[in-house]
Amino acid sequence: MQAFEPRDPYGAALGAVQRFAAAGRFLPGEPIVVTDLAAEVGLSATPVREALACLAGQGLIERRRGRGYFYPALDAAEIIDLFELQLAYLNAALTLYPRGLTPLRKAVVAVDPLAGVQALFDAVIAQSSNAALILAHQRVVDRLKAVLTAERGQDDSDGAMVRTMVSMIVEGRIPDLLGQLDAYHERRCARVPALMSEAR
């Protein structure tokens, strides 16, 4: 019996690597061996190498000249930079709402407070309907995957922060929410060393 070969091996390889990264399959700093990964997903090395090159161009995989591909290990400064980028994206989504506050309110009240602050952030960005903003934010989230998982594990607020932020949006208190986000950002940046040790 002949093995199934996808019509688009590059697309299959790209999807597989993205799924692996989203599932936490790679550890920060871990080398990604093209031939091993290709065998694991049932493809030749060429489409896997092309997919890794594409993801390296997006900053989701690290390419080290002469050494191959690695899953990026973020240092504290890079994590803080990515947190700041996420904060900027949230500010944009919360202050540039051409469709009014109603879609924003609907999006955030659907978020389960126990899902954590990141679920709320994702909902705020998604409701913006700005494709470039949504894509840029998803890239930040993808880069921060291990850190966000560690952050979620340290969250013992029982959804209180999410409920507070949702209330502010429902009441139309966007300036207050922006201040709350700034304060949250400062606290999460202070926790970066602990998040880094947990994310390893």
UniProtKB/TrEMBL annotation:
Xref: InterPro entries:
Tscrpt_reg_HTH_GntR, WH-like_DNA-bd_sf, WH_DNA-bd_sf
The record's listing under SUPFAM superfamilies reads: Winged helix' DNA-binding domain (SSF46785)
The record's listing under PROSITE patterns reads: HTH_GNTR
Could you tell me the superkingdom of the organism this chain comes from?
Bacteria
The UniProt entry, under Gene3D superfamilies, shows: Winged helix-like DNA-binding domain superfamily/Winged helix DNA-binding domain
Q: Which UniProt keywords apply?
A: DNA-binding, Transcription, Transcription regulation
Residues of the HTH gntR-type domain: 7-74
Q: Under which name does UniProt file this protein?
A: GntR family transcriptional regulator
